[in-house]
Amino acid sequence: MLRVLVCAVLSVALASAELTPKEAAEGWVMLFDGETLFGWIPEGGAKWRVDRGVITPQPGESGWLRHNAAFADFILHLEFRIPEASTNSGVFLRSAKEGAPETTGYELQIWDQRPTYKTGSLVNHLEAKRVTLTPRKWHTYEVQAVGDRFLVKLDGKTVLDGRDRKSKVGHIGLQYNKDNPCEFRNIKLKPLGLQPIFNGKDLTGWREVKTERAKEPPVWSVKAGAINVVKGPGQLETEKIWDNFVLQLDVRTNTDNPKLNPNSGVFFRGQPGQFWSGYESQIRNQYSDGDRTRPVDYGTGGIYRYQPARRVVADDNQFFTKTIVVRGRQISVCVNGYPVSSWEDPNPEGEDVRKKQAVLKPGVISLQAHDPTTNLDFKNIRIAPLP
After folding, report:
1. Domains of the chain by range and CATH?
2. pTM of this prediction?
């Protein structure tokens, strides 16, 4: 038995996958963009395709579709459809990258005819109330996982509420058992457990890092509940260090010149006090020839120097929500809930990203003031460490 999942959204409807502006602001991300399998990795022999906003396994060997990002506490929403009552499938939760996902994590069952642990159960762990699926009808799962507690709703009705401590963090996946097809769509997730690292009043918990390159040193201040920065170059970093995490923040790039798109970034796993160190999640809402799939200078949400954003989602002078999920070598970024980058660092471990070294040690998180034209606001900065 097997599993998968990941991120998406925008004010553009992508097939059947779309978040409302309210959902995007609340931190929901689309794990499936409705058009592609971006951010997903097939495991085992199964092959998968997307057709009209639906993820469908192809006839053949068993396997699972694994989302690249790993999550700990979350609310997961998805819809599924089985062709006949005897279909055997499932959704994996908190599963490891290697090994059998139902063993390393949990399998949320889709199979009414199993003797025990039928539909809605976490197989071999928690038994759900007895339910019956209707073939060829779309059903909805909503799963809330917080610590060792799992709350599962099927079509809006609670079918399971229990506790199990086996797995605290891992991947979401979709299962295909040979000759048992199941379709999936509208897969979205809201990370839970995020705590503020900016109090909205002052710069407590943050410190400025200066550079001699700055002819116009940046000015950091707090205005209307946001960190505002003008001029630069410069950097504002956290006093604490972070390893694996889910980070969400709201950003606005301010400009009165339509030909000037402010340049900034969010750095992470940086060395304390070292200027612009660690990985950078780019902030630049510029694209070429009116085509949002052609970002300039990696584009907002791109992983600077390594992977351009596949679409520029955000616009200047409007707050957008950025979600950065980091675990080990894997980095995934969503902008307004839409997955724009997903990258695993293949480089040898070291301490300098610029020298093509994978930085796996904890480090500071930094906000960038790029140049004298910088004018940005950052607010609602919150983080959840991944265990």
Report:
1. 21-191 (2.60.120.560), 196-385 (2.60.120.560)
2. 0.94
